Amino acid sequence: MRLRKFRVRAYRCIHDSGEITVGDMAAFVGRNESGKTTILEALTLLNKEEVVSELDLCDEMTDDLKDEVRLAEGEFELNQNEITLLKERFPGLPEVKKLRLYRTNKKLKVQYEFDDIEISDTEDSELNSWENFARQIISFLDTLPNHLRIQMDTVFFQSPAPKNQEAFDSGMAEFSNQFHVIAVQEPKVVEEWEKIYENPENQFSNLLSGENEKTALQNFIESDLHPRFVYFSDYKKIYGNINLNEYQKGEERSQSAEYIEEFDKAETVRNLFYLAELDMQELEQIKESPSKCIKMLNAASNRLTSKLNPAWKGDPIHVDLRYNPGNIMSVVISDVHRDGTITNTGLLNRRAEGFKWTFSFIVNFAAETQRAELKEAILLLDEPARNLHPTQQMGISDLLKNLAGSNQVLYATHSPFMIFDYTPGNLLVVELDKRRHLSKIFYDYWNADDKTLTPILYGLSRGQVDSIVDREIGTNSRPVIIVETMSDAMYLNAFDKFLQDPNISMNPLNIIAAYNKNSVFPLAIFYRNHGYKTFILLDNSDESKQISAQLVSNEFSPVQTIFFEKEGKKLESIEDYIIPDDYMHVVNQTYEIKLRQEGYSNLTVQDMEAVEEAGILNKLRKIWQDHSDDDWGKFDNVEITRYICEKIALEETAFLSDKTKDRFRSLYRLIAERIRQYQNTSAKPDLDKFQRAKI
Question: Which stretch of DSSP H or E encloses residue 70?
Fold first, then answer.
């Protein structure tokens, strides 16, 4: 079950977040105290065991809270397995594909709504539920002779539904034994009871809970399908020497009613031992036998190392757990280099603070997620990459991506290196309205304040941030042409210089290379919103067609979107402007030396055109894929681009034919014509049209 939309009201600093669409792996970005943590914690109210605290209700909404207010609500999409399960248990209902959960300030339990289907809430005696089953038993007992009936203990059937199969079987067996003892002289009565007792429909796995269809559906979802929100926040550092006596005392304190800190040192050490699969009771029994102790700790150290290294970027590490006199466990770290050498062996507490924090975070996070056996949970992480170097943040990103396969991951971050997806819903901005001290969430995140967007802007177009947010530069600049890849930018700039065609009248071009295809659309929005005349150059992929549709729906003129084309036919990539003979010459020049040892022989245009793929790049990638067993690796079109552009810079261009030059001239003329069309048809720009109102 995945959360697709949510809304938070009257919770701490949030009056009303509005309805927010959210993806499977979503980042919340915002400045300090903007409300990111509050959003994550508010979502935990949808856990069925959560309790609403009066202290969490918004002080400024006292009047509203006199009535029932939905503090948190979420619209959830069921997966196919869940849809099938509900269909099997409720065959009379239409397919339930989504539902809404909400918690209010007036009722203790989470409540359910089914917006798209009608469900009966009238009592149904035919429903195969515990209540009807218990009523059937009581009715049967009422038909017995009075001297038998008054001896029957019916408390089990007058109580709420059993919690599980074990409780049901135990209660039924106890009552059945009692029944046989009391009715031993009445074989026909016993026979009637056995029919009820052995009826397959009356097994616990088939019984619902509720006296009507709606209640039964809600109870079934609560017990079997209710989504779980798992919140991670603070973690304590692990140090080099662990006093096991103090650790055991900490374990006792953490289990006491007065203990409230979420993760103390004892919890962190417990996570370390959990990953190492180290049984402390077993260690206590063998610690006086050095050989057994060393063998056990070596095995635990290897398990711990293997579980930590997948998230550790840079040279791998090896972790040794060593038992020392005084009941001290030492954590010893070594660097393992690619050539197999091991250096820098020493206690963890001798490492830098950032290293210790990184190590401790990965231990805590990996252990908590593995211990919970997380599957189809919604993970809420508050600043999972704080204090980490960018390379280590990428390691954490691998952890999150792995978890996102079977879970939904929502996390708060300040870092551009922790933003993986710029799709609205997978990237949300939280901003504080200082006048009312309320948080607002932007689904269309480009409408948030520029300062809040700084991490996103750096992720979208690293070195372009300063120029994007300066409107004076935008309104006084030449039109910008946003391209999808660095190769596109390199070709356009290189051939513009190479052709030097005065009829094109565009020299020099103002090309902006997007970070990746996913960033083209929001990058175009930012440039347009800051005064630039913005044009977007796209290839003929499905992703590019989606980008074009998004641009039109966000008030871009169709004239501003330019697809690569030749003689009215769209091209797969800019490389298709190059004559195949010219391009294959460069491919052979590049790879003849590079793959000489792998048996590479020159490819012909006929070899390339024989491949049933669209576009020159797709054909060559397929050829390289077919030679994967020959260690050709992946076809690197950027390397070919660099070769061509370098030769143009050196004026060594004999390999480029006049046909290739003419094709690129047609591209520049197309761009120039689109710019003229736009300038002739567009009115004087309204500089404030796309600007967010300033508070």
Answer: strand 70-77
Which residue type occupies 177?
A: N
CA distances from 39 to 71, 149, 629 (A): 11, 57, 50
Q: CA-based angle 69:75:76, to the nearest 5?
A: 140
User: Are the C-beta atoms of 43 and 21 separated by less than 8 Å?
Assistant: no
Residue 169 tokens, joined: 């079987």
Give me the pLDDT at residue 255, please: 44
| Main-chain dihedrals φ then ψ at residue 182, nearest 5 degrees | -70, -40
Q: What are 385's two structure tokens?
A: 């990459």
Tell me: pLDDT of 356 over 60.
Answer: yes
The crossing angle, in degrees rounded to 10, of helices 353-371 and 390-404 is 0
Question: Which of these, 538, 530, 531, 528, lies nearest to 561 by C-alpha position?
Answer: 538
Express as a percent the part of the chain with pLDDT over 70.
88
Which position has the token pair 């959960």? Answer: 101
> What pLDDT, on the 0 to 100 scale, is given for residue 695?
42
Tell me if residue 293 falls in helix, strand or coil.
Answer: helix
* Torsion sign, CA atoms 86, 90, 95, 100: negative
pLDDT tens per residue, range 491-523: 998 888 788 766 655 556 788 888 788 899 999
Strands 98-104 and 70-77, sheet pairing: antiparallel
Rounded to an integer, what distance in angstroms lies between the CA atom of residue 649 and that of residue 655? 14
Which phi and psi angles does 504 have, rounded to 5°? -80, -35
Tell which residue, 629, 563, 640, has the closest CA to residue 598.
629
Check if the beta carbon of residue 426 is closer than 8 Å to that of residue 413: no
DSSP string, 567-621: TTEE-SSGGGGS-HHHHHHHHHHHHHHHTGGGT--PPPHHHHHTS-SSSHHHHHH
pLDDT tens, 176-228?
899 998 888 888 888 988 888 888 777 777 777 777 878 888 888 888 889 98
Those residues whose C-beta lies under 8 Å from the C-beta of residue 355, and which sit 6 or more positions away, are none
Instruction: Evaluate if residue 394 carries a pLDDT over 80.
Output: no
Answer whether 364's CB lies under 8 Å from 268's CB.
yes
Quote the CA–CA distance of 503 and 669 in Å, as a whole number. 9
CA 61, CA 9: separation in Å to the nearest integer?
10
pLDDT in tens, 535-575: 999 998 888 999 999 999 999 999 999 999 988 889 999 99
Phi, psi of 536, rounded to the nearest 5 degrees: -125, 125
**Four-CA torsion 122, 123, 129, 130, nearest 10 degrees:** 130
Closest CA to 577 of 688, 503, 494: 494
Helix (H, G, I), strand (E, B) or coil at 545: helix
pLDDT for the residue 313:
63
pLDDT at 234 over 50: yes
**What are φ and ψ of residue 317, in 5° steps?**
-120, 160
